[in-house]
Specification:
- This protein is of the alpha+beta class.
- Helix content is 42%, strand content 18%.
- A hairpin with a 1-residue loop joins strand 7 and strand 8.
- Helix 7 packs antiparallel against helix 8.
- The longest helix is centred in the middle third of the chain and has 24 residues.
Length: 320
């Protein structure tokens, strides 16, 4: 997930992201005579989807538009490597289109599983680079390497043009999901149009977001959670100022800060829907307090730990 610097990073400012303890698992099996994607955990029915990885055409009849949209990232990976005669099976703990990097995680996991299955011997660096290129291509040339670097390497990543790992301690955050998906490409395009029309307004906002991203690591490292909360709140205000906030997101943010007594809260990801993140006060009772406040604000809460691992081979038969 992106902690700070959403949208600003696309315009060259600094962003800070963290891998969390939610996993996407991919497995590749031989399937003579076709290509299929099975992803029952992505909250849509994809089992038995057939597609031509070279043309990108979906071959299954009566396929919903939402399910077809979800195949784009896997299809792009298969097309890149000319992969045929196989089935890709995905299991995801990440809500799709939620701002938590689900598409990047799917691309990285699929690349890792495909590399293992086809004995391509791709390094983690190569997978991260390829994943960023593929995700960016699917999203029309927009986006940053933040999510793909986090999915590949784990931990925390500072992104300024390129991504680099930074050593920071783990934190407990509460995520609140609005239940409303967002369209990353559409939100990024909207912000880019705003920046092109009002550069004298947008550029200082992006710089301010970048400065927050630079200050936040010391707060995390030194355990200055109250100050980190202030930065979260400031980051949310800046994101709302460029038009990616929604009523549902703000309700979860203010519920977390109010009844939840969180140090701070903000939307995460592209906005327009998706999730918020909240920094609870120390102690399990305060995690529960924030989660309860999110439920009362009609959101779906779950607790995550930041700074977790990235790509790993979990199944010697090819699962990632």
């Amino acid at each position: 997930m992106i902690l700070f610097g959403e949208h600003a990073v696309v315009s060259g400012a600094v962003a800070l992201g963290a891998a969390v303890d939610l996993r996407v698992r991919a497995r590749v099996e031989d399937l003579p005579g076709g290509v299929e994607i099975s992803a029952p955990d992505l909250r849509m029915t994809l089992e038995g989807i057939g597609l031509d990885p070279f043309s990108g055409a979906v071959l299954t009849e009566d396929l919903s538009e939402r399910a077809a949209h979800a195949t784009r990232y896997v299809s792009a990976v298969l097309k890149e490597f000319g992969a045929r005669n196989l089935r890709v099976i995905l299991e995801s703990q990440i809500p799709p289109a939620s701002g938590l990097g689900s598409s990047a995680s799917v691309v990285v996991a699929t690349l890792g599983a495909l590399s293992s299955h086809l004995a391509l011997d791709l390094s983690t660096d190569e997978i991260a680079e390829e994943a960023y290129r593929i995700e960016r291509s699917v999203q029309g040339g927009l986006g940053s390497p933040t999510d793909t670097a986090l999915a590949a390497f784990g931990g925390y990543q500072i992104v300024e043009g390129s991504a680099r790992s930074i050593a920071l301690p783990q934190m407990r955050l509460v995520v609140g999901f609005t239940g409303k998906p967002h369209d990353t490409r559409a939100e990024v395009e909207k912000v880019q149009r705003f920046g092109a029309r009002y550069p004298e307004i947008a550029e200082p906002i992006f710089r301010a977001m970048g400065e927050i991203s630079k200050r936040a690591p010391d707060c995390i490292r030194e355990g200055r959670l109250e100050e980190l909360g202030i930065l979260l709140n400031a980051g949310h205000g800046l994101l709302e100022s460029i038009g990616v906030g929604t009523r549902e997101l703000s309700e979860l943010v203010y519920a977390s800060r109010g009844a939840g007594r969180a140090y701070g809260a903000k939307l995460t990801g592209a906005g327009g829907g998706g999730c918020v993140i909240a920094l609870p006060r120390t102690g399990p009772e305060n995690v529960l307090r924030v989660m309860t406040a999110i439920v009362q604000a009609r959101g779906v809460p779950f607790s995550v730990v930041t700074g977790c691992g990235g790509l790993s081979l979990e199944d010697p038969r090819g699962g990632i």
